[in-house]
Amino acid sequence: MTINEETLNLQLDLSKPLYEQILHQIRYALARKDLELGAKLPSVRELAQQLRVNPNTVMRAYQELNRDELIETRRGQGTFITTKPQKIQHIRDNLATEAINSFIDTMQELGMSRQAALSLLEEGKW
Amino acid sequence: MEMEYAIELKNVTKSYKKKLALDRLTVAFPTGQITGLLGPNGAGKSTLLKMLVGLVHQDEGTISVFGQSPSWRNNGEIAYLPDRGRWYALQTVAEALAYAEVIFPAFDLDLARKMADSMELDPTAQIRTLSKGLEARLNLILCLARRVRLILFDEPFSGIDLVSRDKITQNIINSMFDLPKTIIICTHEIHEAESIFDHVIFIDKGQMVLADNAEQLRTEKGSIESVYRGLFQ
To answer: Which of A28, B9, B82, B137 has its CA 20 to 30 A from that of B144?
Structure first.
């Protein structure tokens, strides 16, 4: 199975680093399991052309995803999403922990106690 | 990481009669990257590009292009798209490409024909009948189909339609894969072009105002367009 640019549906905002946005959006799509394990990703050339960004920007994002073993580039074949579900679970846990830590930071900045924050969280709309 | 520079200008000054075009300008363009050269009208952008191909000579200072002073001898390695450049009006698109192969060193006619096809240029159309957008596409091909190390674009997007701009941008991106090359783009259409810059240099009144990596600028200050506004408005 091949993932095309439309499925990835990356939305770039020129006021923020483009590399980080590409990385962030692919990581989140993987965590949500929007992208099938083992599926083929667009090549750097295809994605750079479609997003109209510098190829180096896409290459950097792919390198980072490669390093985390979320994707795998096979010589002469292309770039594929990992076939290992534990890698996806791992990135999901990491992103969730990151979000929780930032939530705790904000609550502490507001002077909220753990208890008060927890009850607000309970009441919050999901 | 140590950056390599394809082009270096040191304390370059140039004046036309009484008007100072470049004023002790010191800038460097990274090798293998796309650099946006930005600034208001009269900042000295076109003068700088003309100097790199030896069309204009500096009064003072030094210029190095791949380690050499600009001269016609090095121009075989440089493709230059001048602002408001025109090709022979009576040639057809196909004739223009064939003629380009004769006059330009390292012109890849096959590649040019493929690009013309992908850019929807009719090979039988006479150049004088082309719209501005189509003519801009042809001018782009005449540069990008040359197997050179350095490409200079002076206002490749000005006054043309959106579809032509998109096609031009995509072809510039595509060309980065074929052969490592250094590209300089002077443009006022910053919003259209900024996503393809690796590096950005802002100049004004012949002097360097700011130079940085494009992603670094976005991290610290926001879009390249907003940085431009902040500097010049």
So the answer is: B9
CA distance A31 to chain B (A): 25
Most A CBs within 10 A among B165, B215, B219, hence the mutation to make, goes to B215
pLDDT tens string B182-202: 999 999 999 999 999 999 999
Give the up-direction half-sphere exposure of residue B225: CA atoms within 13 A in the CB hemisphere: 13
Residue A14: its chain B contacts at CB < 8 A? 191, 194-195, 218, 223-225
Instruction: Give which of B112, B114, B90 is closest to B101, Cα–Cα.
Output: B112
Sheet containing strand A40-41, edge to edge, reads A40-41, A78-81, A71-74
Chain A nearest-CA distance from B215, in A, is 5
Q: Please list every residue in chain A whose beta carbon sits closer than 8 Å to the beta carbon of residue B196.
A: 52-54
Nearest C-alpha of chain B: how many angstroms from A2?
21
pLDDT at residue number B2 = 66
Q: Judging by DSSP bridges, how do beta strands A78-81 and B78-81 pair with one another?
A: unpaired
Dist. CA B73–CA B78, nearest whole Å: 10
For residues B123 and B112, give the distance between their C-alpha atoms in angstroms, rounded to a whole number: 11
Helix (H, G, I), strand (E, B) or coil at A59: helix
Per residue in B168-182, pLDDT (tens digit) is 899 999 988 878 899
Domain ranges of chain B: 5-232
Nearest Cα to Cα of residue B187 among B153, B214, B213, B217: B153
Which CATH number is B5-232's, of 2.60.120.10, 3.30.70.141, 3.40.50.300, 2.30.110.10? 3.40.50.300
What was the pLDDT predicted at B78?
A: 94
H-assigned helices in chain B = 45-52, 93-103, 109-118, 132-144, 162-178, 190-193, 214-221, 224-232
Smallest CA-to-CA distance from B81 within B130, B142, B28 is with: B142
Cβ–Cβ contacts within 10 Å for residue A26, how many?
24
